[in-house]
Amino acid sequence: MGDADVEANRAEPGDWVGEHLSTYLTSGGTRGHVLDLGEVGGRAFTTNCLIRYRGRSSGKVYVTPLIYGNFGGEIVIVASKGGADSDPEWYRNILQSATVDVQVATQAFEATWREPEDEERHEVWAYMTHLYPPYITYQQSTSRRIPLVMLAPGKAIDVFTP
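^ Deazaflavin-dependent nitroreductase family protein, sequence as received from the core. Prediction below:
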């Protein structure tokens, strides 16, 4: 699946990602943390976090909603980009920083991040594909190895604002 195909698929249902982000931000995290993604092959209770990071070239601050899991006390996010052939921009941007801001429901914190390797990566991938089965199809549709990012919570920060 090429990047253009992924973008076309995202555009079809309208800007639901933008609406989801707005709901999450304007509610302070009381809404938007859990979504029913059953219509797209996910689970009825799919947890979502927000990450905030700085653009590697622009220096602009971005906030992106992502599905997450909790594995061994770390937040796990998946750089799937719907199975596109290139990594998502958020992933390429966080590679330039040792930390990323994260909001889970009404709690926000600064986190350090890492990518699991070897057996741990296999275990984390199995866990995340159980939480959101479409990740399996996404991986099958691209030759790149979809990155997994583990976020270790650090100091508390204020929740994100619109």
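The longest strand covers residues 148-157.
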